[in-house]
Amino acid sequence: MEHAGRIAFVTGGGSGIGRAIALRLASAGAAVAVVDLHAGAAEAVAAEIRAGGGRAIAVAADVSAARAVADAAARARAELGTPSILVNSAGIAAFDPIATLAEETFDRMIAVHLKGTFLACRELAPAMAEAGWGRIVNVSSTAALNGGGPGLSHYAAAKAGVIGLTKSLAQELGPRGVTVNAIAPGLIDTPLIRGAGAPEGLYDEVVRRLPVRRIGQPDDVAAACAYLVSDEAGFCTGQVISPNGGAA
Ligand code: NAP
């Protein structure tokens, strides 16, 4: 198994895309720290991995809080070993027109997506660089590339920040054997999009215009991630891969 003996740290691992990535990494032999805001969601995924014969722990943490991320990393190191794979998938989404976009809502969007990604990278990248091998995958969004549509300015800005962070870290960490890439998914069927308060009919309209004529599934994103964290992807860094069904 490709990742036997490796440790993965997956934020947002309790649901949707992060869950699919955690399960996929575990099936490739990695021990997984499933990190999520909600202990119960993280534990359900960790238990699923253990039931399948893998190693996993659940860690409840808010990725926007430096202390919580440091504690989560410490637990992963103590109970599993030093992570060499980091996937930042924790996220939130909401539709807020600019006229009524509250400062706290904007700040929270940036804190979870951009600061959370920064904090986890800061916590885990040094040991990867020290060891001379590491893989970091940051989940951005097509919204970072095309704006996402009305009401998503905070979300698009946070996700665009993730791409800038990714590209700069790729330059910084490349010489030490650590690749850093972003995935920019299109519309993926997860609890996040169902709870985001999208305008009626928006998702149906998006899917109707997609060349593949279907909504994406978490495994569509996990497949892209599996490539980016693989040994054979060592020449791929600072890139944005976009599983999006062919969205324009
Ligand atoms: P999801 O099913 O809601 O999973 C995200 C997980 O992250 C949830 O368990 C969520 O908990 C957790 N989370 C939220 N805030 C957190 C925090 N501060 N600290 C730790 N965990 C936190 O959503 P998803 O669709 O899989 O999204 C995963 C990533 O993909 C997100 O970054 C999202 O922006 C991105 N993305 C999604 C789509 C899509 O169409 N689904 C498209 C492009 C990009 P709660 O449930 O409590 O919020």
Bound molecules: NADP nicotinamide-adenine-dinucleotide phosphate
- Inertia-based shape: globular
CATH topology tier name: Rossmann fold
The residue ranges in which pLDDT falls below 50 over 5 or more consecutive positions are none
Physical arrangement of strands within the biggest beta sheet: 3-2-1-4-5-6-7
Helix and strand pattern: EHEHEHEHEHHEHHHE
Helix run count: 9
* CATH architecture level-2 label: 3-Layer(aba) Sandwich
Question: Mean pLDDT, rounded to whole units?
Answer: 97
Q: What's the CATH class, please?
A: Alpha Beta
Structural class: alpha/beta
Radius of gyration: 17 Å
The total strand number stands at 7
Write a brief structural summary.
The chain has 248 residues and is α/β, with parallel strands linked by helices. It is built from nine helices and seven strands; from the N terminus they run βαβαβαβαβααβαααβ.
Which short descriptors sum up this protein?
248 residues; 9 helices; seven-stranded parallel β-sheet; alpha/beta; Rossmann fold; globular; 7 strands; binds NADP nicotinamide-adenine-dinucleotide phosphate; single chain
Structure, described:
- This protein has a single domain, classed as Rossmann fold, CATH 3.40.50.
- It is 47% helix and 14% strand.
- The protein has 248 residues and is α/β, with parallel strands linked by helices.
- It starts with 6 loop residues before the first strand and ends in a 7-residue tail after the last strand.
- It has a 7-stranded parallel beta sheet, sandwiched between helices.
- NADP nicotinamide-adenine-dinucleotide phosphate (NAP) binds next to helix 1, helix 4 and helix 7.
